[in-house]
Fold this protein.
Amino acid sequence: MQKFGIYTNLEKDVDLSITKKVIEILQKRGLDCYFDSETAQALGAVEAQWCDCHPIDVLLVLGGDGTMLAASRKYAATGVYLLGLNLGRLGFLLDTKPENLEMALDQIQEGNYELQQRLMLEAFLQEPTGKKHFAGYALNEAVISQKNKLRIIHLEVDVDGQSACTYWCDGVIISSPSGSTAYSLSAGGPVVAPTVDVLLVTPLCPHSLRSRSFVVDGTSQIDVRVHREVANIALALDGQDYLEVPAGWKVLIRKADFTAKFLRTTGENFYTILQEKLAEWR
């Protein structure tokens, strides 16, 4: 692996000192170094050094879990390997810390790493006529709820064209296995190992003691429709990209035809990280 890209959360590395150190390490090893467009502009790099202009092997993501979510939505479809360098607290999606980068690079060059492929979601908005419009990708979850008001809505959820459930609730979360430890978990959903091929459906504050999360096969398509024509319905992807859902339209969620490819070099397993993360919440 020769070509490396860098995607930096500029709010966590304000002076770019960590990013510059990473660049120095890569260049010292004779590795090609390119940058996400925002990182490039902050560094004053020319457009020829942007990741968009070159096929890259590994994208180094500097930040927290939210940074990895954004990087995955933008780059996972290219097939690039993702390696997270944690600039914040313990994260589920990040492999190591910047000070351990040289050790991680040694392992990558030696082939001594684990490749973890994680399911990505893709979302569509469907008109009443049946015409579909691509809405975007998500690594963790897609959430359908009211945009500006916290009031109950009536949602119908179909799985593969069959009626699965009806919720009176604040909204519904369609989650990937990666997202099972995020918003879905906070809403009472189950924890699922990140490489399992399933989708999770979790209602937000359902107005019924019998309304629960459920899990469907990863090959399924989930359709969500607001029962009445309610205004201000929104689709949120990973809590970062927001789209308005016109009255009467459906939201369609399924897994994408590509995965997010995570490099793991530390040997830490999912359950160890889960225990540490849950301990923070006590």
